[in-house]
Write a sequence for this structure.
C-alpha cells in the first residue's frame, strides 16, 4: 500500500473550516484514500473514503486531486469535539490488502 | 451488540504473568484486526483474521503473542510472560468483509499495564 504524508499538527478556530492535507504521490490506480480520526482515549473512527471523485457525507468532505497524488479532508464547521488525530490511509481494494496502516496522522486542535 | 466490544477495559498485571484480551466484533463482520498503541504513538498492526482463511500474523512482535478467533466471531489475544514494554492500549476492529472497500469499526480498547 502507498505511503502517506501529513503535517504533524494543525490548529483551527471553532466554527471555521478545517482543511487537512495528505500527500500520497505513490498511490496506484486501485487504491482508495481513507480518513479516520482518533479522539483522545477512544478507538479510531471512520470518517470517509474515496477513489477519484470528491465525496461528502455528514461528517466531512474529501477532495482528491485529479492526479490522485494528494487529497484534503474538509470539516466545514469545526467544533471543539473535532479535536483529534486525523489519519489519512491509502489501501487497495483487493484480497490480501488486509492491513490498515495508520501513520502518525495530523493532530488537529480546534481553538475556541 | 451495536459495536465492537473489548474486555477488560483495563488490566494491570505483574511482569511475567500471562494475559488474555477479548474482542467481540460486530455481528456479521468477517474481518477482525488487532492493533496496539503505546502512549503517544500511532497504531501498530498486530494480526488480522478474515473468515476461515489463515490469519495474517505478520505484525506480532514476538512469539509471546498469539491470537485466535473461534467460530469466526470472538477473538482472544494472548500475551505470555508479559514484559513492561507490552504496556499499551490494545485495540480491536472489525469490518464487514475484506476485499471490498468497507470501513473498520474499532472498540474502545483494553489498556494493559505491566508492573
Amino acid at each position: 500500500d502507498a505511503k502517506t504524508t501529513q503535517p504533524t499538527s494543525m490548529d483551527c478556530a471553532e466554527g471555521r473550516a478545517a482543511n487537512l492535507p495528505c500527500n500520497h504521490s505513490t498511490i496506484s490506480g486501485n487504491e482508495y484514500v481513507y480518513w479516520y480520526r482518533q479522539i483522545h482515549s477512544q478507538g479510531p473512527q471512520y470518517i470517509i473514503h474515496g477513489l477519484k471523485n470528491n465525496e461528502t457525507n455528514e461528517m466531512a468532505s474529501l477532495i482528491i486531486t485529479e492526479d490522485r497524488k494528494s487529497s484534503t479532508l474538509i470539516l466545514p464547521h469545526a467544533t471543539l469535539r473535532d479535536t483529534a488525530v486525523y489519519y489519512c490511509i491509502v489501501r487497495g481494494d483487493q484480497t490480501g490488502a488486509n492491513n490498515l496502516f495508520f501513520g502518525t496522522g495530523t493532530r488537529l486542535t480546534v481553538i475556541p | 451488540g451495536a459495536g465492537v466490544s473489548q474486555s477488560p477495559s483495563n488490566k494491570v498485571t505483574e511482569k511475567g504473568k500471562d494475559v488474555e484480551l477479548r474482542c467481540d466484533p460486530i455481528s456479521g463482520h468477517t474481518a477482525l484486526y488487532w492493533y496496539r498503541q503505546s502512549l503517544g504513538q500511532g497504531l501498530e498492526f498486530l494480526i488480522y483474521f478474515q473468515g476461515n482463511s489463515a490469519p495474517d500474523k505478520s505484525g506480532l512482535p514476538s512469539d509471546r503473542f498469539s491470537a485466535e478467533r473461534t467460530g469466526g466471531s470472538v477473538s482472544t489475544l494472548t500475551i505470555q510472560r508479559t514484559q513492561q514494554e507490552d504496556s499499551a492500549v490494545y485495540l480491536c476492529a472489525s469490518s464487514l468483509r475484506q476485499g471490498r472497500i468497507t470501513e473498520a469499526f474499532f472498540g474502545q480498547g483494553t489498556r494493559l499495564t505491566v508492573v
User: Anything to note?
Assistant: Chain A has a mean pLDDT of 90. Strands of chain A lie at 9-13, 18-23, 31-38, 45-50, 55-56, 61-64, 70-75, 84-92, 106-111.
